Amino acid sequence: EAGVAQSPRYKIIEKRQSVAFWCNPISGHATLYWYQQILGQGPKLLIQFQNNGVVDDSQLPKDRFSAERLKGVDSTLKIQPAKLEDSAVYLCASSLAIQSTEAFFGQGTRLTVV
Amino acid sequence: ELKVEQNPLFLSMQEGKNYTIYCNYSTTSDRLYWYRQDPGKSLESLFVLLSNGAVKQEGRLMASLDTKARLSTLHITAAVHDLSATYFCAVDGTGANNLFFGTGTRLTVIP
After folding, report:
1. Out of A31, A91, A107, closest to residue B97 by CB
2. Which residue from A minimizes the CA distance to B93?
3. Does A95 touch chain B (CB under 8 A)?
4. Could you read off the pLDDT of B40-79 as tens digits, one per residue?
5. Domain map of chain B by residue range?
6. CB spacing of B101 vs A105 below 8 angstroms
7. How wide is the angle at C-alpha A42 spanned by C-alphas B77 and A48, nearest 5°?
């Protein structure tokens, strides 16, 4: 079974630039999550989708971050404009359903803002 | 907001020794997860604990959950070098897999 795919693996941008990350969840998984993991910390949930609808985006900095999952499959996370403190690994995860007891994580995109 | 605390943050132990990592959380939850993360890699699910008193074991790792004390433990028995990694506990804050993670415990097993 293919896992959660993310791209790119690495990205370096200058502050105030824009960046986008892509995630393809496990086939058939209705629920998709984006997490931010700052170096030395645990992951923090940014946004949760159920199919193409947002379930929870309470921790998403909406002034600069946006995410979509238009067809209920792939998702993109965008940062515009980036700040130095956005340097982190962005992890995508998916689960079969909201009630599922396990989420599977992708390898993440490591973003460095200089 | 749900708070999850792990201790210790760093753990260096010799091969063959036993040790326990603790995970405390601030709000009632019936779902607790343990993950392993190797440097530069993603999170690997180790255990899912769904009820008070749940105990699960896999190899040299055993996890338990006490929902009344809001405490989970990850016990390492006779550590080996391959167990070196960062271990996270995570608590489901809403019952919808909205996970709140601890800060992690970086384990180094010394041969």
Report:
1. A31
2. A45
3. yes
4. 888 999 999 988 889 999 999 999 999 999 999 999 999 9
5. 4-110
6. no
7. 120
